[in-house]
Amino acid sequence: MTFWDQVRSTWNATVESADRAVAAPSVHLKPMFRFSLYRPKVPIVVTGDRGAGKSLMYDAIVGKVGTTYAPPGKSDDAEPHKIVLSTSSKRVRCAMVVVPGQDSREREDALEPMMTGGAFPTGLVHVTCYGHNTVWDSRDRRTVGDDFALREGTLTAESLRQRNLEQEAEEFEKVCAMLRDAWHRKSDVWLIIAVAKCDLYWSRIDKARDHYLPGAADSRFAAALRGLVAHVGESNFAGLAVLPLSCYPDSHEFHPTLPMARPELDQRQATVLVNRFRSVLGDFCGRR
Ligand SMILES: Nc1nc2c(ncn2[C@@H]2O[C@H](COP(=O)(O)OP(=O)(O)OP(=O)(O)O)[C@@H](O)[C@H]2O)c(=O)[nH]1
Ligand SMILES: [Mg+2]
User: Fold this and answer.
1) Residue 142 has pLDDT above 70, yes or no
2) Strands, DSSP E only, in the chain?
């Protein structure tokens, strides 16, 4: 099987397990004891555009998202975490830093020490959401809409989604540019593209797969991913996965004047996806 066939096959198996809602055994993952004297061994960076679902991804994998859970809202600064992953045979301590999206001082400050001057993350999770980014401020949301209507014509959910996808691809290209330098001549590194909020577009999940995964006609995002893998070298990856993820099935408002998008997955199916994601993360972290 080729490199990308393997990635595609893991994606397909994940979609199938959520469709059938079959629970798979998962690795155990929890925050490290705050005063622990152990130092984390595996540095992991989490990147992705504003409102893509990075903070929710972290809360979901450490098991914080339950029935009484309230999402944390916009993150202004990098969020550093220490976690322990346990499988039946291994325990791995990881440092996971969630970096805010889009250009900002906080983003640069968080990324630079981890990606330049010889430093590099062992693993990177890049969170995407197929154009369903949350715009935090309702005033911003209105401005995005007005702006859009003025410059590009009719405001529809689809036109806003396409615009978010462009911005997402641009953000990913920047992350890839940094990774090309950081991972140059390195081996045993790994990358996971989390295709989050997929409860909002489960009926189009195959289209989402073809958007993110390199294939016959690469999107701008897929071309950046293919370019990064070619630069680093397939054999230098301890693992690469593109995985559908749903951490918090909920309605999504593209704009106050447009109808809400409704979740198409139930909580049980979302849990299957979170468990699958955790397993792949645990597997990659344990491979060195
Ligand atoms: N439908 C649905 N909505 C989600 C999901 N995950 C997150 N959301 C929604 O998206 C919002 C943004 O998610 P966050 O995880 O806070 O986004 P972020 O990437 O950390 O954003 P910044 O902090 O701005 O960088 C949340 O408040 C939820 O309302 C999901 O799996 N499904
Ligand atoms: Mg956040």
Assistant:
1) no
2) 28-31, 42-48, 79-86, 91-98, 123-128, 189-195, 237-244
Q: Which ligand is nearest to the CA of 51?
A: 1
State which residues form the domain around 152.
3-285
- How does strand 123-128 pair with strand 91-98? unpaired
Q: For a pocket test of ligand 1, which of 47, 49, 56, 136 has the largest count of ligand atoms closer than 8 A to its C-beta? A: 56
Which tens digits make up the pLDDT trace of 178-191? 999 999 999 999 99
Closest CA relative to residue 231, chosen from 277, 169, 182: 182
Whose atoms come closest to the Cα of 199: which ligand?
Answer: 1
Q: Which atom of ligand 1 is nearest to the CA of 127?
A: 19
- Residue 76 sits in a domain whose CATH number is 3.40.50.300
Q: Does the Cβ of 246 fall within 6 Å of ligand 1?
A: yes
Of the candidates 231, 233, 218, the residue with the CA atom closest to the CA atom of residue 177:
231
Mean pLDDT of the chain: 92
The number of domains in the chain is 1
Q: Tell me the per-residue pLDDT of 68-106, one tens digit each, with 9 for 90 and over.
A: 999 999 998 999 999 999 877 889 999 999 998 877 888
Is residue 214 in contact with ligand 1, taking CB distance under 6 Å?
A: no
Task: Check: pTM over 0.85? Answer yes or no.
Answer: yes
CA of 48 to the centre of ligand 2 (A): 10
Q: Please work out whether the CB of residue 64 comes within 6 Å of at least one atom of ligand 1.
A: no
